[in-house]
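tl;dr need the bound structure. longer version: we got a ligand (BIS(adenosine)-5'-pentaphosphate) that a collaborator sent over and nobodys looked at where it sits. i said id run it. heres the input, straight from their email, havent touched it
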Amino acid sequence: MRLVLLGPPGAGKGTLANLLRDHLKIQHISTGDILREEMKKESPLGKKTKTIVDRGALVPDDIVTKIIENKFSEDNLIHQGFLLDGFPRTKLQAEDLDKILNPLHKPLDCALYLDASRKIIIQRLTGRRVCRHCGAVYHIHNRLPKIEGKCDVCNGHLYQRPDDNEETIKTRLDVYIKSTAPIIEYYAQQKKLLKVDGDRDSEKVFEQFMKRINETQRSH
Ligand code: AP5
């Protein structure tokens, strides 16, 4: 399957993507994770994008589209299936994705839209902690590691993302409303949009999406 995952920051896209990846056996590609990895390595791309990401703005379209094109060609993902998380984020990125896929007769199957309320988003993001080594995600209230500050998976150090402070979260939400929300309509018009309420717990969200994906597949 070829899927994209849309939704405001903190809606739970990364958390859901891990469940879908394991269940559907497709690769999960997060542009946010790729950019953070480049920043950690201090590569030219990482250095160029760090200040943009840290202040909650969007990296230029041509840079992120190139990242996706490279990923597609490295791993033959267009044929094997993928779940894109955090891409597309602007109408131009959505159109560019169609321009890559449609000529190959491998169009997107569905756009999964995970919505969440502002209050929940702020609680989730201010309490999120991430493993610096493997990227596993925790929360100071609802997903605690067994040992404080240490990752259950690899024992790595847990940290708070620099863009997870209240002021930057508000910027990210504003950017989302202005630049990303319009692409929900883009996919609704293509009749590819599947929406689920992300305020609910992650297992429920996952079940709902699987139900909707299976219904869509049966109707084709
Ligand atoms: P990115 O990394 O994509 O950040 P985001 O979209 O802001 O999303 P988050 O990762 O913050 O949240 P999430 O929805 O994945 O939530 P999570 O599952 O972790 O992008 C970062 C930056 O990179 C951007 O600001 C931009 O600068 C740049 N960028 C990336 N892609 C770009 C693009 N295409 N174009 C331009 N720039 C780009 O969950 C959050 C917390 O809540 C966790 O603690 C989790 O445990 C908890 N939680 C999750 N689900 C639930 C639930 N159902 N119930 C209770 N708790 C939950």
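gonna send this back to them w/ a short note. The beta strands are 2-6, 27-30, 82-85, 110-115, 128-131, 137-139, 158-159, 193-197.
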